[in-house]
Design brief:
Blueprint (H helix, E strand, L loop, with lengths): L7 H6 L14 E6 L6 E8 L5 E9 L2 H13 L5 H17 L23 H22 L3
Helix pairs in contact: 2-4, 3-4
Length: 146
């Protein structure tokens, strides 16, 4: 028997998205959109002196899977740097593409295991991680001396 795609945990996450307000003056801001369903997520970041995410703000206009992914990202993004976020984005992408195996090491991502066979839903799951990784990279690049 397969688990339901929209399970109780995914629906719970949609109601508990931390950092759900845009930052006033972010160091970087990136929007990602899923062309399949129209989900959109904007991530704003500010980095600390060590290049780690100090503040994050988000605008989430996404399906339940995108909202749940944004909640999971927001719960654990503070303190990570651009390289760590890019690596997590890549591991998530690889896991979804493989369609099997254990979820990447990020608290709660296993909630998306039932979505593995639904490749059309994968872009929505990746949106928040893609936007956060790019925003952190853009902010870090802006801080580098020229």
């Amino acid at each position: 028997m397969t688990a339901p795609l929209y399970n109780a945990e995914i629906l719970r996450l949609t109601t508990a998205i931390p950092h759900d307000q845009r930052l006033v003056d972010p160091m970087a801001s990136v929007e990602r959109r899923s062309p399949i369903c129209g989900s959109r997520i904007t991530v704003d970041v500010n980095l600390d002196e060590e290049g780690r995410v100090a503040e994050v703000g988000m605008l989430v206009r996404a399906c339940a899977l995108g909202q749940a992914s944004a909640a999971l990202l927001a719960n654990h993004v503070v303190g990570l740097d651009a390289e760590e976020l890019a690596a997590m984005r890549d591991r998530l992408t690889e896991w979804l593409a493989a369609g099997e195996g254990a979820a990447p090491e990020w608290p709660g991502l296993d909630v998306f295991t039932p979505a593995l066979p639904y490749t059309a839903r994968h872009p929505s799951i990746r949106l928040a991680f893609e936007a956060a990784a790019q925003a952190a990279e853009d902010a870090a690049a802006a801080r580098r001396p020229r």
